[in-house]
Amino acid sequence: MLHIEPTAIPDVKILTPSRFEDGRGFFSEVYNRKRYEEAGVTLDFVQDNHSLSEKAGTIRGLHFQTAPFAQDKLVRVVRGRILDVAVDLRRSSPTFGQHVAVELSAQNWRQLLVPIGFAHGFCTLEPDTEVLYKVTNYYSAAHDRGLAFDDPALGIEWPVDVSQAVLSEKDRKHPRLADLPACFD
Question: Is 50 among the residues known to form the active site?
Answer without folding.
Answer: no
